[in-house]
Amino acid sequence: MAKKVQHPTIKKLHRLADADMVFWLMPALIALLIAGTIAQRWIGLFRAHEMFFSSFIFFLGPVPLPGGFTVLGLLSAHLTLKFMLKSEWSWRKSGIILSHMGALILLIGGLMTALFAKESYMIIAEGNQSPYIYSYTERNLSIFNDRQEIARLNYDNVKNWENAELPFKIKAQNWCNNCAIEKRETKESIAYQSMAAFMQLKNAPEEAEPEANLTGVEFEITGTDKDGTYIGFDGMPKPIELTKGENTYTLIFGKAQEILPFSIALKDFVKDDYEGTEMARAYHSDIIVKDGDLEWPVRIEMNAPLRYKGYTFFQSSFRQTAEHEMSVFAVVENKGWLFPYIGALIIGAGLLLHTILVMREQKP
Amino acid sequence: MIRLLLITLCALASIPAHAQTLDMDAFKALPILHEGRIKPIESFAALQKKAVTGEEKNAGLWLAETIFSPETAIKTKSFTIRNDNIKAQFSIKTNQSVFSYEELLPGLEKTKNQLQTLLGKEQKTLTTDEQALLDIHEKALSYTNLLRSFSALTPINHEGKKTRFIDMRPNAPDAQMIMAMGMQSTALKILPAQWEKSLWLSPWEMILSGKGSPASAQLMEKWNAAAQAYRQNDTRQWTKNLSDIHKITYEQAQGGISKSRLLTEQLYKNIKPYLWVIGLYTLGLLAAFFSKNKISLALTLTAITIHTASITLRIYILDRPPVGTLYESTLFVSLICAALGTWLFIRKKEPAALIAGAASALGLLAIAPMLTQNGDSLEVLVAVLNTNFWLSTHVICITIGYGVCILTAMLAHAALIAKAFNKAPVIWLKLQKHIHHASLLALFFTAFGTILGGIWADQSWGRFWGWDPKENGALLIVLWLLWVQHGRLSNNIKPLGFVSLMAALNIIVAMAWFGVNLLSVGLHSYGFIDGIAEGFAAFCILEIILISALAFKIKRQPS
Question: Which of A181, A129, A167 is nearest to A251 (CA)?
Fold first, then answer.
C-alpha cells in the first residue's frame, strides 16, 4: 500500500511531537538557566528575570539565543502535540504519559502566572487598618480634586502625559528610573516651583532590584494659578498643591497603589527570637480581616499565608521604630496558583509509577 | 588602659592554679545558653576555644582557667600569630608563633588606634596584614570578655584592701571603670531567667540589668565559690559547689533544660562518630579494592549503622529533622550514597556499587567540616527554615535526590574506568543498566523535591517559581537528567555518551548544591558560606578532565 502523503504542515507538527525535540530543546533551556542564574550576581533577580526568562530572545555577547518564552513555548507545544500525535496510550506507558501531562500543567500554570500574577506589598502599623496595597515597581502620578482621584498617570507612559485629558496640562521634561538629586544652581526664566526651586534630578545607575530605585519626574504644568516646573520624586514624597479658580488639586507621585475589596487591621506583630540572640525563630502577625459587616481574626506567619478573594498575604518583613512595630506583607494576586499543586501531584504519581513499571519489567 | 585591665585580672596573681587535679566532668556538663539554645558548657567551651586559639582540644579545662583564674590564663600561650609584619608591629619574638595574652597586650594597646580606620573600610579592600590585625583584635576582645566573666565577684585590691565590685559603692573610684569593662562580658549566659519574659544572662548582665533575684544571687555566689575552689585547688569544695550549681540551675530553669539532651550532646561531641565512620568507610573501600567483598560489606554496614545512629542523635539533640544546614546536608547525602550503594551490592551483586557508595560517602564526609559556620556543627535555624513539615518533606526529598545522583555519577565513573582499562565487556553492559535505573530514581527524587520546594516557596514567599539561584540549581539537575534520558531514548546519545554525561552529573550536583551559594544572591541566603570557590572550581575542572580522558581512551579502543 502506498504511504499516505502528508501535508507539509502536518509533517512539521509530527516533527515537533518527536521525543528527540526534548533532546534538542533541553540544552537551550539549560544554557538559559545557567546564564540567567549567573547574571543575577551582577544585574539582580528582577532584571535577569526580564532579560532571560520573560523574553523571546537574549544575547550572550553577540550571539542571539532563545529566551524563556521561546523555549518554554516550544516545549509546551511539543508536549501538547506529543499527546495528540505520538503517545502510546497503554498501561506500560501510563507513568510516562502522567508525568508529561503533569509537566504540561506546570507549564500552563507558569504561563498563567507570567501573564496574570501581580505582586504588591502592604505595610501596616500595629493598631492601624488599611485597604491599600502598593506596587513594588509601578509608579503613578495621581491627581486629586477635593480628595477625589480624577486621573492617574502611569510613569511607564511618561512621554505621553501631555496628551492626558486634564483640567490643566502636564508635560514631562526630564525623568529617570533611578534619580540622584543635586542643587539647582540656575533658575533661568522658567519658574521652578516647590521642590524644583532648589533641586534637580540627575540620572543615576539603576539598582539591581527595581523597588530600590528612586524614580522621579520633572514636569511642566500650565493652565493653573501657579504654573511652572515641578518635581515628583520617590525619595521625597511631598504632595503638590495647585489651584485653578475655585478648584484645588493635589498631585501625588509614588508607588502605584490599589484599593482592596476589604481591609486588614493589624492587632499585633510578634518577632520571636532564639533566646539570647537577635536571630528570629519565627514571626507572626495577628490581623483582623474586615469585609463589609463581616470581620474575623487571622494569624499570618512564616509558611502560613492568608488567602482571600484571590489575594494571598505573606509575612515578608517588618519594621521596628521607637513608636511602634510595622508588619510588611507581600500581597500576590495569582489566578494560576493552583496549577503547580495539581501538576506536582500528577508528575510525582507518574514518575513513581514509571520507576516501578521499569523495575518490574527489568526483572528476569 | 593596661593598668586598669590588669586590676581586674591580676589581683590574684599570687595564687597558682592546679586545675589538672580537679574533676572537670561536672563542670563540662553544666548548662549554658549560647547561640539560641541550651547546651552543655563543654560545647560552648569548644566553640570559644576554637574561635580564640584555632583548636578545641581540652576546651573545658581552657574555659575553666579563663573564667576562674584569669591571672594565670593570660600567661598561657594560646594565641597563634604567623604574620611577621604583625609580630614586628607588636614587638614580639619573630621566631615564635604562639603567644600568651599578656605578651600581646602592649601590641594590642599600641595598634588599637588603627582599628577605627580599618573597621571603616570595606572588607575586600583590606590587605592581608590589615585583616590579620583585625582578626587578632577580634580574638583578643572575645577572650578579654571571657576573662572578665566573674570580675564583678572577684575580690580586687582596692584602696589598700580586698573588695568586690558588687560590694563597692557606685561612686567608688574605679567602680565605673570596672563596670564599663564588665558590660561587654555577655557570652557566659549561665544564670537562668528569674522572671517571666526574661532570659538566661551572664553574671555581669544579671547585675547590670537589675533582672536578678535572691535566687540568682545565691547561684552567683555558688559560682564564685567554685571559682575560689578552682584557684585553691580544693577538690572537696569544687565538687560540692559544682553539684550545688547543677542542682540550683536545673531548679531555677523550671524544666527548661532537658538533661538527657545535654548528656546526648556531650556523648556526641566526645565519641566523634564521624571519625569512626570515615575510618570504617576507608577500610571498607580498601577491602573492596582487593576484592574482599564480604569484609568490605561488613565494614560498610557497620559504618552505615554508626552513621545513621549519629544522625539520629543529632535529630534528638536539636529536636528537628536532620537536614537544616549545608553541613547537615552533606552528612545526610553521604549516608544516602553509602546506603544505596550497599543495597545495590546486596541486591545485584555489583561490587562497583559498594565501591561507588563508600567512595562518595567518604568524599562528602571529608569536605563536611569546611561547611560549618564558625565551626558550630549544631546550629539553630533561621525563621523560614524553622518548619518541621517542609524540612522533613522537601529538604529530605531533594537531598535524597542529591545522594542518588552522586551514586549514579560514581557508578558511571566506575563503568568508564572499567571500560577504559578493558575489563570484561559484561561489566560495561551491566553497569549501564544500573546507571539507567539509578538515574530514574534520581530523577524521581530531584523532580519531586524541586516541585515540593516550589510549593513551599508558594506558601512562604507567594510564588511557586521565582528563578532564584537555589531553585534554578535544583531545576538544572532535573533538566540534565531529562536531557540525557531523552537523548538516550531518541538514540541521539550513544551508550558512551550516556555514561559520560551521567558521570558529569557530579558537576551538575556540585553546581546546584554549592555553586549557587557562591553567587551570594537570592532568597536562600541562609545557605551561603565563604571560601569554597577554589575547591569548587578545582573539583569541576578535575572532573571534566577525568571524564573526557576516560571517554577519549574508550573511543580510541578498537570496536
Answer: A167
* Strand B37-40, strand A57-60: pairing: unpaired
ipTM: 0.77
- DSSP annotation of B391: I
Q: What average pLDDT does this structure show over B416-443?
A: 89
- Tell me whether residues A48 and B467 touch, CB distance under 8 A: yes
Within 10 A of B430 (CB to CB), how many other CB atoms are there? 17
Which residues are CB-contacts of B538 (< 8 A; sequence separation ≥ 6)?
none
B289 to chain A nearest CA, in Å? 29
Mean pLDDT confidence for B438-456: 90
pLDDT of residue B16: 44
- Annotate B157-188 with b (16+ C-beta within 10 A) or e (fewer): ebeeeeebbeebeeeeeeeeebbebbeebbbb
Strand bridging mode B31-34 / B37-40: antiparallel
Cα B34 from chain centroid (whole Å): 14
Residue of chain A nearest B460, judged by CA positions: A303
Distance from CA of A38 to the nearest CA of B (A): 7
User: Which of B189, B437, B472 shows the shortest C-beta gap to A276?
Assistant: B189
Q: Is the pLDDT of residue B222 over 90?
A: yes
Average confidence score pLDDT of chain A = 86
Partners of A314 on chain B (C-beta within 8 Å) are: 460-462
Phi first, then psi: what are they for B445, rounded to 5°?
Answer: -70, -40
Model confidence at A105, in pLDDT bands (50, 70, 90)? very high
CA distance A2 to chain B (A): 27
Helix (H) or strand (E) holding B212: none
Name residue, grid cell 516647590: A194
- In angstroms, rounded to a whole number, what is the distance separating the alpha carbons of residues A143 and A240? 9
C-alpha cell at A36: 540567567
CA distances in angstroms from A120 to A44, A80, A132, listed in the order given: 19, 34, 10
Read off the pTM. Answer: 0.81
User: d(Cα A264, Cα A128) in Å, to the nearest integer?
Assistant: 8
DSSP state of A272: E
Give pLDDT, residue B373. Answer: 66
- Dig out the grid coordinates for B111 from the structure: 595598634
Best CA proximity match to A139, nearest among A216, A218, A44: A216
Residues B163, B165, B168, CA angle at the centre, nearest 5°?
70
Per-residue pLDDT reduced to its tens digit, B115-155: 888 888 877 788 888 888 988 998 999 899 999 898 888 77
Q: Which three cell numbers stand for residue B146?
A: 571571657
Q: Is B443 an interface residue toward A (CB < 8 Å)?
A: yes
Nearest residue to A23 (alpha-carbon basis) of B495, B505, B491: B491
**What pLDDT is stored for residue B521 in this prediction?**
61
Q: CA-to-CA distance for B403 and B343, rounded, in angstroms?
A: 14
Q: What is the DSSP letter of A198?
A: T
Written as nine digits, the cell of B45 is 567551651
CA-closest candidate to residue B367, choices B523, B271, B506, B266: B506
What pLDDT is stored for residue A314 in this prediction?
A: 87
- What is the pLDDT at residue B527? 53
Instruction: Report the amino acid identity of residue B157.
Output: N
**Burial category of A18 from C-beta neighbours within 10 Å (exposed 0-12, middle 13-18, buried 19 and up):** middle
Give CA–CA dist A268/A279, Å, rounded. Answer: 19
Query: A350: closest CA among B336, B407, B439, B440?
Result: B440
The answer to whether residues B12 and B71 touch, using CB atoms and an 8 Å cutoff, is yes
- Contact, A305 vs A334, CB < 8 A? no
Choose among B371, B70, B64, B333: nearest CA to B190.
Answer: B64
C-alpha cell at position A175: 525623568
Task: Say if strands B98-100 and B161-163 run parallel, antiparallel, or are unpaired.
Answer: unpaired
Give residue for cell 501531584: A345
What is the Cα–Cα distance from B344 to B438, expressed in whole angstroms? 10
